[in-house]
Design brief:
Structural class of chain A: alpha+beta
Radius of gyration of chain B: 20 Å
Strand content of chain B: 5-15%
Largest sheet of chain B: 5 strands, parallel
Mean pLDDT of chain B: 86
Strand content of chain A: 5-15%
Number of strands of chain A: 5
Number of helices of chain A: 11
Low-confidence stretches of chain B: none
Distance between the termini of chain A: 30 Å
Mean pLDDT of chain A: 80
Oligomer: heterodimer
Radius of gyration of chain A: 37 Å
Largest interface: A-B, 35 and 32 residues
Structural class of chain B: alpha/beta
Order of helices and strands of chain A: HHHHHHHHHEHEEHEE
Chain lengths: ~375, ~280
């Protein structure tokens, strides 16, 4: 079972969160690409007054170039799925600067408005691109300033109140684009959080129902019936209590790995009547063969406890480590033994071979009356 | 378990809002020859025991961490300020929360699923030497030592060996016999271990600043947006909240190097996780 909080985090920060935010970026990119393409039509309007232009060919070239640039911009932004590609935004700003400078030359001297008025919509979109793509900051301000300075210079000497209106337009389109981008992106983040919250609530409710129906209710009903509790039932209670506690840990309880193997071993011996005290702090996974050997050695150590310890009270299992080292201690308070008097053989001999093959080591400390401590380490000789 | 010198039985008080759990614990302590002088469901109802003129304080107060009213670290702080030796226990608690209660003055920690014998041992230890380091707490303290180093000489070799022995389930008398320490030496070593743990948890490099804690609570516990949190905190800017969250994530990653997945979480998610681990949500 995947830990719930991590599953939610994955849900929120993983593909789902990515989807929502990517889709929002794509929408913003599409909107700005449509506006860029559609405003290129305005650049053709000065051609209607062909004879009123000093250099109509320049106006024609500017119109054709703007169409090419708008097409390039559209394809580039759609392919990237975002307008937050600074090279594209700067290329668009640079093109607009060039368009204003060269396009205004098509008009007779002193009458740049005959052309530039029709360039306004196209140029304003560039300021909006800076707002969406470069966001607030020096780069965005620099881009808008470049557009405004070029515009002002190209209007000289035809300076009227319209110039102020045009310049205000550049600033406002930039600011409005900034605000719109912030709202849309913030909305997508909230959507992700809300979806994660809904998903978490559903999973929690589902898990709670499952636990209540399958585990809690049968136990409570059995206890409430007043019947005498058998030893088996008490063991089951201990096992379920252990499971319930593991559910409380939002980051533990993976389905696989050394921790799961050790929990499985502990659960087995709890069912066999050992009273286990488990402290498992495994952070990251050792190789699978090592994990299997360590779990087998732990199982064998507990098997010996069960065989020889009798009713020796709680047995401590402490497992500590991660991907590069592990130490497992199995400690009982039984009668103990003198290791010198014990002949080699039995299950541990076989297990020893397996753990030596995986570069693990096993150390047994015991003395009569003082219990036994088995320490299993990987790699061998790595004492933490 | 450290042997207690002959004399009056160890007195204990239990603060636990689950009557069944409290009754079970009381029975275990009484069976071990201790005297349970008070049992309360919350810190507030235990307060009269601590008022001047009332019979003396118990040797040890066994306090559940999650309680109605004063709870978690605040409950421990309150009890410690009134002169109690607190042994914390809980059904489940993150290592951060356990170490936070140690920072507030708890003398030991036991999970409720530990074998019944452990509780009597722990109470006797706290009464005799002032501290009890269960295997679990020893593992948490060793991790903390690794993740939040204070300096090269924060704990000596004997203290580190003592922590290792506690993690392996050795009892105080066994540690003393093995290391050749006197009971006073064991007590001094435990004192140093707990003092270092408290210092680590109060070190500004490793813990959220008071302002960061406020941000964590608003964003992590109540789910406020950055903008609302900024407004709530007296008109600081949204960017400041974002900066606090980024800093918190950085601090969390530095103090939780084993949590590899934190790198993939947003700063908001990390703040939420940390604030819950620390038990700071109201």
């Amino acid at each position: 079972m995947q830990p719930l909080s991590r599953a939610v985090s994955n849900k929120v920060t993983g593909s789902n969160a990515g989807d929502v935010q990517v889709r929002t970026e794509e929408r913003i990119a599409r909107i700005i690409a449509y506006v860029r393409v559609s405003t290129s039509a305005f650049v053709y309007l000065p051609l209607i007054g062909w004879e009123r232009l000093e250099q109509p060919v320049i106006a024609l070239c500017a119109a054709l170039a703007s169409s090419v640039e708008a097409t390039w911009f559209y394809r580039r932004v759609r392919r990237a799925g975002t307008v937050q590609v600074s090279s594209v935004v700067w290329a668009d700003v640079a093109f607009c600067v060039a368009l204003i400078v060269i396009g205004s030359r098509a008009a007779f001297p002193g009458q740049p408005n005959a052309v530039t008025t029709e360039l306004v919509p196209f140029a304003l979109v560039s300021a909006a691109c800076a707002g969406f793509g470069l966001r607030a900051g020096f780069a965005g301000i620099l881009a808008v300033a470049a557009l405004m300075i070029t515009w002002t210079v190209s209007m000289i000497p035809d300076v009227t109140l319209k110039l102020a209106s045009d310049l205000l337009g550049f600033v406002l389109w930039y600011v409005v684009a900034l605000l719109m981008a912030r709202e849309l992106r913030s909305l997508s983040r909230q959507d992700v959080a809300a979806e994660g919250g809904r998903w978490l609530a559903e999973r929690q409710a589902e898990m709670a129902r499952h636990q209540m129906h399958d585990v809690l209710l049968p136990i409570v009903e059995q206890v409430a019936s007043g019947a005498e509790l058998s030893e088996d039932f008490v063991r089951r209670l201990r096992r379920e209590a252990g499971r319930a506690r593991r559910l409380l840990d939002p980051r533990a309880s993976p389905e696989s790995g050394l921790r799961a193997l050790l929990l499985d071993v502990c659960e087995t011996f709890t069912e066999h009547g050992l009273h286990m005290e488990t402290v498992i702090a495994i952070r990251g996974e050792p190789p699978a063969d090592v994990a299997a050997a360590l779990a087998a050695a732990t199982r064998e150590a507990l098997n010996n406890v069960r065989k020889h310890c009798g009713s020796c009270g709680p047995v401590l299992i402490r497992a500590d480590g991660g991907p590069d080292h592990v130490e497992i201690v199995v400690r009982d308070r039984g009668q103990g033994f003198d290791p010198r008097t014990v002949r080699a053989g039995g299950g541990f001999t076989v297990t020893f071979r397996a753990i030596h093959r995986c570069d693990c080591a096993c150390d047994v400390e015991s003395s009569p009356g003082a219990g036994t401590k088995v320490t299993i380490t990987w790699p061998a000789g790595d004492k933490q | 378990m450290m042997d207690l010198p002959g004399g009056p039985p160890v007195t204990a008080a239990i603060i636990d809002d689950h009557p069944m759990s409290a009754e079970g614990l009381e029975a275990r302590l009484v069976a071990a020859g201790m005297k349970v002088v008070a049992s309360a469901r919350c810190v507030e109802s235990f307060a009269p025991v601590m008022t001047p003129g009332s019979p003396g304080l118990p040797d040890v107060v066994v306090c559940d961490l999650r309680l109605p009213g004063l709870s978690l670290g605040r409950a421990v702080t309150y009890l410690v300020r009134h002169g109690c030796r607190v042994l914390a226990m809980s059904g489940w608690a993150s290592s951060d929360l356990v170490l936070e209660t140690v920072a507030q003055g708890a003398r030991g920690y036991l999970p409720k699923d530990d074998p019944p014998e452990r509780f009597a041992e722990a109470v006797a230890d706290v009464a005799a030497v002032g501290y009890h380091v269960s295997a679990r707490l020893a593992v948490y303290l060793r991790d903390d030592l690794r993740c939040r180093p204070l300096g090269r000489d924060e704990l000596g070799r004997s203290e580190r060996e003592m922590l290792k022995a506690c993690a392996d389930g050795d009892r105080g008398d066994e540690i003393a016999a093995r290391t050749g320490m006197s009971p006073a030496g064991v007590r001094d070593s435990l004192e140093r271990i707990f003092a270092a743990a408290r210092q680590r948890r109060h070190d500004p490099r490793y813990r959220p600043t008071p302002r960061e804690e406020e941000v964590m609570i608003l964003v992590g516990c109540t789910g406020m947006t950055d903008r609302r949190a900024a407004r709530q905190l007296g008109g600081i800017s949204e960017d400041t909240i974002t900066a606090h969250l980024a800093h918190l994530k950085e601090k969390y990653q530095r103090t939780h190097p084993d949590d590899a997945e934190a790198a993939f979480l947003s700063p908001r998610a990390v703040a939420g996780q940390w604030v819950r681990d620390l038990g700071l949500c109201p």
